[in-house]
Amino acid sequence: MEKTKKSTKDICSKVSSLALYVVFGISALVLILFFCVGYNNMESYASGFLTTPKFTDLLLFWQYALVVICIILTIVGAIIARGAKIDSQMPKSAGVLKTLGLLLFVPLLIVGAIIGSSKPVRTGEGIYDNSFWLVATDAMLYTIYGLLIVVVVGLILNMIGIFKK
Fold first, then answer.
1. What digits encode the pLDDT tens for the residues 97-150?
2. 139 in the same domain as 61
3. Domain range spanning residue 110?
4. 141 near 112, Cβ under 8 Å?
5. 0.70 exceeded by the pTM?
6. How far is residue 145's CA from residue 132's CA, in Å, rounded to a whole number?
7. Residue 50: which H helix or E strand, with range?
8. How far is it, in rounded angstroms, from Cα 142 to Cα 150?
9. Among 22, 65, 60, 59, which residue's Cα sits nearest to residue 37?
10. What distance in Å separates the CA atoms of residue 67 and residue 99, rounded to the nearest whole number?
11. Is 51 helix (H, G, I), strand (E, B) or coil?
12. Are 45 and 100 contained in the same domain?
């Protein structure tokens, strides 16, 4: 019985590692295409000449696909974890970290909205001056940056071994 559990763990580990490498590879290819192939294309717009990379659509579709995949896997993982009672095997610090991430989201969003700028922005189609969406975009970006910092710090602490106790 112990051998079956170990081999299942090994298979899951290998599959997840392979999936990670595939996602990194596709992301690297998309970024190389975006930045190295046709990045210097200049097109004329009402506001002047702007750079229009050839593979902008590909980059945006890949980002949307990654977000959708992430949402689907998060929901499926939560369902599987609840059904398999995996939470009982996790260290106690894991629950604290999940709660911390959820509790940081709202304050970061509020702080981002407070410090967000409503200054009009020049786009390819002219000046964009909808102050609500300008502040909302800044708030979302600041929230992403803040949560990214929390994730990186958590990863570093996990690699050091603080959460393995």
1. 667 767 888 888 899 999 998 898 887 677 888 899 899 989 989 988 988 888
2. no
3. 90-165
4. yes
5. no
6. 20
7. strand 48-51
8. 12
9. 59
10. 21
11. strand
12. no
